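Need a sequence for this fold. Nothing fancy.
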């Protein structure tokens, strides 16, 4: 398919995006889908967050979605969940909640955009019965140590039997020599076979054997949260142990964990549960429509479609032509506001620019074979090197990877909260 045919298709079928009201055709297209997966082309772009938020508000109001699940850690996101549902043990205000996102990259969730969303969600929930309040949860699995600390705290607070507390403390002790450093643990476990897998598996079994009298929604969620933290511990241990060996295993463990966490959240919320997922495009866009499949990689978008059927899943990709982004030159390096150069020629982003050069929405209908061309689609992570622009593109068949695409001509960096950003933010 030549570029001009694609440009003509976009020009004639894309819808302008000027306000949240322009999202209504997308809400209508989502229809009765049970899972709406909302992407982002970077973790540090304001527009990706703000428009996901606006779309989520419409889905909650018009389609009755029960919860939002994000590419964040379970313990820190669960603080948000308790706050927006006004549980008795919740932190007193949104600022204190945001401080719980205290592990690099703090700005990924501790930013002005998410702070405003949390306040809106709490206010919206005030109008609902407790069982109908919309939740907020983390699907990721980097919180191994934090999750185990939460398990011990929960067991002690609920007066669990001493043998169950001892089991949790034994698992935690196994990881203590590694100073909360996953790579340090992974290297030692891989090279010396001195791993803690048995301990965390037994911990999960012990947590699942617990029985409680659940008198209200908050207590039921507390028990469920404890089980999710145990699941995080099991899969995070596997992840850190596998990442040293290279290959697709660590990626697949992580995306399979996020899919399993989403399944458990859906089951917890009942037969009519409907979920909104916020994750990077590389997680929510079907891996089978990219070169990831050639490397033996799967992702959340593919797995959820396979589990629930394509008619139950609606994935929306995001992209932009140029702008600025919050990122870093290396993991845990000082955060910077970086320039995002104009999209590479003949990439998907460049074709949208050529078609309209404005913010726009394209919903993929049955006649979108023209968008099955395999072209580069920009992906920026928390680590970003703009001078290696060619390496930032994922070969993609756009209309197979997503069900719709939102494009921005000019984007801007996220606005981190000052009490979470410990690094300087120079302009790069």
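Here you go.
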């Amino acid at each position: 398919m030549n570029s001009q045919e694609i440009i003509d298709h976009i020009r004639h079928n894309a819808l302008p995006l000027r306000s949240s009201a322009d999202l209504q055709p997308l809400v209508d297209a989502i229809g009765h889908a049970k899972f709406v997966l909302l992407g982002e082309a970077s973790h540090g772009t304001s527009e990706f967050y703000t428009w996901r938020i606006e779309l989520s508000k419409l889905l909650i109001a018009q389609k009755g979605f029960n919860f939002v699940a994000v590419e964040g850690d379970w313990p820190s996101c669960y603080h948000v969940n308790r706050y927006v549902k006004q549980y008795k043990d919740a932190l007193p205000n949104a600022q204190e909640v945001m401080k719980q996102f205290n592990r690099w990259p703090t700005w990924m969730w501790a930013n002005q955009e998410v702070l405003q969303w949390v306040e809106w969600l709490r206010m919206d929930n005030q109008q609902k019965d407790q069982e109908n309040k919309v939740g907020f949860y983390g699907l990721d699995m980097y919180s191994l140590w934090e999750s185990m600390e939460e398990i011990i705290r929960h067991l002690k607070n609920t007066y669990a039997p001493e043998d169950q507390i001892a089991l949790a403390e034994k698992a935690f002790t196994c990881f203590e020599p590694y100073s909360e450093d996953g790579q340090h643990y992974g290297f030692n476990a891989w090279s010396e076979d001195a791993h803690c897998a048995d301990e965390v598996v037994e911990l999960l079994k012990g947590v699942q054997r617990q029985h409680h009298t659940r008198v209200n929604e908050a207590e039921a969620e507390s028990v469920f949260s404890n089980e999710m933290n145990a699941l995080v511990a099991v899969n995070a241990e596997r992840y850190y142990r596998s990442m040293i060996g290279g290959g697709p295993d660590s990626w697949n463990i992580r995306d399979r964990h996020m899919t399993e966490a989403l399944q458990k959240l859906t089951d917890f919320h009942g037969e009519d549960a409907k979920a909104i997922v916020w994750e990077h495009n590389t997680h929510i866009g079907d891996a089978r429509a990219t070169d990831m499949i050639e490397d033996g990689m799967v992702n959340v978008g593919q797995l959820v479609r396979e589990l629930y059927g394509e008619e139950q899943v609606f994935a929306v990709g995001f992209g932009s032509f140029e702008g600025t982004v919050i990122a870093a030159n290396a993991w845990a390096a000082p955060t910077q506001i970086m320039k995002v150069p104009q999209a590479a020629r003949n990439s998907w982003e460049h074709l949208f620019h050529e078609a309209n050069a404005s913010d726009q929405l394209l919903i993929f209908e049955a006649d979108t074979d023209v968008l099955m061309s395999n072209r580069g689609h920009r992906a920026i992570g928390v680590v970003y090197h703009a001078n290696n622009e060619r390496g930032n593109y994922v070969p993609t068949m756009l209309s197979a990877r997503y069900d719709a695409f939102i494009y921005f001509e000019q984007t801007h960096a996220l606005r981190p909260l000052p009490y979470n950003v410990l690094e300087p933010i120079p302009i790069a």
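For context: Residues 217-243 form the longest helix (27 residues).
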